[in-house]
Every structure is written in structure tokens, then in C-alpha cells.
Amino acid sequence: MSQINIEAEDIEQIAGGEFERTPVPQSKLKSWKSFLGMYAGEHAAGTEFMIGPLFLTAGVSAFDLIIGLLIGNLLAVLSWRFLTAEIAVKNRLTLYYQLEKICGKNLVTGYNLANGILFCFLAGSMITVSATAVGVPFDMPMPKLSDTMPNGMTWVIIVILIGAVISLIAARGYDTVSKAANWMSPLIVIAFIACGIVALSQLGVSSFGEFWDIWGEGKEPFPGQIKYTFWHVVIWSWFANAAMHIGMSDLSVFRFAKKAKSGWTTAAGMYVGHYMAWIAAALLYAVYLNSPEAQGFLSNGEAPPVAPGPLAYNAIGVFGIIAVVLAGWTTANPTIYRAGLAFQAIIPKVSTFWVTIIAGSVATIAGLFPAFAMKLLGFVALYGFILAPFGAIIVFEHFFYKKFGIIKNYAEHSGSKFNKSVLLAWAISFGLFYFISEQFDIFLSFVTLPTWLLCGVLFLVFSKFLQKK
């Protein structure tokens, strides 16, 4: 594992600072083992402590959760393997430079701004997760599922302190961030396994049938939550990382792969983090739901709070608190760093240190408001819905530019700083399907794929008519 971690560090360090505007040279390519360690660590982190319990609040059944996650995560792996990794090893460029060559510098600036802000909100939700653990020794009131505002001064102080520490570490650069993550990730994975085993014991589970009965045929969703069916679980888990695979963000990672087959290593992240860890976290919440406190909330028509800190502490004690803090930390740190890079592309004269501090400050402010964490299922769906269509631009150009007779990397060839075809394709597809989602109350993840497909097709059509030969 140590060699895998060292190679993963190399990739992440290089991805943060070298070959940003040139293809990765052959001498810098890495084996599949590097990506295995990276994805296993990155996807067993703070978000998992929130997402698992939130599935229970949505009233999923055993079949919907266990089989739905199995299929949805497989679709995510296939997307990484046959789209992201395939294109990455052909071009060996970062997402940002690839988009700039197609869209033009001015349009990419808008993408960077949106990307940076969404990264900050995601990091803020992870600061919230860590705060629920730090607050346990102080007997701090935990935020409820319905809370949007800070619930007290203790909460505010803890969030600000955590945000300041995380921001300072992220500002020291990706080398520090990746080293911290690689040291912490094995501990977090062990904590998830321990939490799952202890929770099964606390629930009195001694057979697979009893394990299945925890979810049974499903229940009504908690107040303020929507009902998740089999297809909700499949589609949501497929697109939980839509921005990374069909959105092409991980071109920046897989450009270092020797072969596209390295895309299969994402299965380590999906089935360690997005399968085992989600189910383990859901088991922690199942234990809590049997407590008098949770039953009191339910009898009053309120949803019991989802606070990862107390849930993990109830299962494995102080180790649980440490694991939740570190899990939030390992997600927030690289996320704030990436947000800083996105902002730096907009304000290049400001140093990396200070743009990262700015990003950390925005994330900390977001962390004060529990809604970002408590509505994480919805936020992740929105995040993917906004950013994934930009990946369709790259995918459809890569595979179909010859068939449609359009110029590849048009902005680079024409000297354009603003490719109208890209903006029109994204705006029409986004606007149409967001309207459909809101008007007909359709789960946002259900329209992510149609939006992605329409954006790619419209890009080809507009390019055919608007490109000047």
C-alpha cells in the first residue's frame, strides 16, 4: 500500500502544477496501481458519513439500496473507463486546457467560477460533518435535517476553527494535501468497517436475512425528504460523481495513465467508498433510529438529526470522533485546493496561497449553514447536473467531429475566446431540463443524462452551422 500511496501522491502533485498546457510526456506515465490507491482513498471520506444515513431518511428498501447501489456504481465505473480514461490517454490534457481549446478562454473563465463556487459549497458541507464530531465532547446541540441556519455560538466557533485549519493546510499546496489524505485514508476505511460491524452487533443481526430486514420493503420518507425508489438509487449513485466522469473532470488525473484500462481502478472507490461505506454509515443511523431520542423526534412528526459525529461515537467511541473529523478533513482539503485553482484561473495575479485562503473562507461560511450537508443528496445531484454537460462537449467532439465535419478544438484554431456553440448548447439543454424538473417535480438526477446527451448533440449541430472554415 505504501508504494501505491507514493505513486498516487506523484500523480496528484503533478496534476496540480505541471503539464497544465502540454500533453503529459511518456516518461511521467503511471501504472494502474497508482490510481487504485488514489480512488480507494478519495471515495471513502466525509461525504460517505452523510450519504449513507440520508438514504434511510428517503425510505429506501433493502433491494433498492443494495442492488441499486451495485448497478449504479457499476455504471459510474463504466463511464470512467470508456469515456474519461479513453479520452484522457488519447489527448493527455487537463480538463481546463481541453475546454479552453474548444470553448475559448473567456467562456472557460465562467466555467471555472461555477466550478470553484460549487467546490466551496461541497467543502463547506464536509466542514459541517467534522464539526458534528468535534462538538460531541462539548455536548453541542446537533443540526437537524430541516436546519438551515447555525444553531448556536458553539457551532459557529467550532466551524470557524475547523475551516481555518483546513484552509491553511490546503493553502500549503497539493503536496501537503495529498500526503495528509494518504496517511488518513486507510484509517478512515478501517473506521467504516468497524462502524458497520459494531452497528450490526448493536442491531442484533446474525444472518443475511436479518441484515436485509433492516431496510425491508422500505418505509415512508422522513418529513421534508422525498421517497427514493430503485431507480432513484441507481441513477443518483451513477451520477454522484457525474462532474468527474461524464463531466470529464478526471481527465486531469487519467492523463497520467499508461492505458485506458486504468479506468477500471475507479471500482476501488465505488465499491469501498460508495458501497461498503454508504451501507456502513446507513447501519449507524439505523442503530440511532431505535433510540428513545430518535423515536421522540418521529413521534412529534420531525426527522431525527443526521449527525455523523455522534453516530460514529456511539459505535466505536473516540476512534469514531477522530475518524469523522479526518473523513471531513480529507474531502474538504483537496476540494478547497481545487476551488482555489479554479479561482486562480480567473485572477491569475493573486498567489495560490491567497486564492486558496479565499476559497477556504467561502467554504467555512458555507459550513456554518447545515443545509448544505443535510441536503447533500440534492446538492450533489445539482452539482453534477450543472457541470456534466460541459463534459459532453468534449466527448461528442472527440468521437464525432469527423463524422459531422467540424473543426476539432475550434477556439484554438480560430483564435476565438468565446465559442458560441458551447454556450448555446449548454444553456438550452440546462434550461430546458431544469424547467422540466421543476415544472413536473422530476428528480434532478433523472434528467442529468438527457441534458448531457442533448448538450453534446446541440454542440455538434451549432458547430456545423457556426464554425467558419
From TrEMBL:
Q: Is Transmembrane a UniProt keyword of this protein?
A: yes
Q: Does the keyword Membrane apply?
A: yes
Give the stretches traversing the membrane: 65-89, 110-133, 153-171, 183-208, 228-247, 268-291, 311-332, 353-373, 379-400, 421-436, 442-462
Keyword terms of this UniProt record? Membrane, Transmembrane, Transmembrane helix
Name recorded for this polypeptide: Purine-cytosine permease
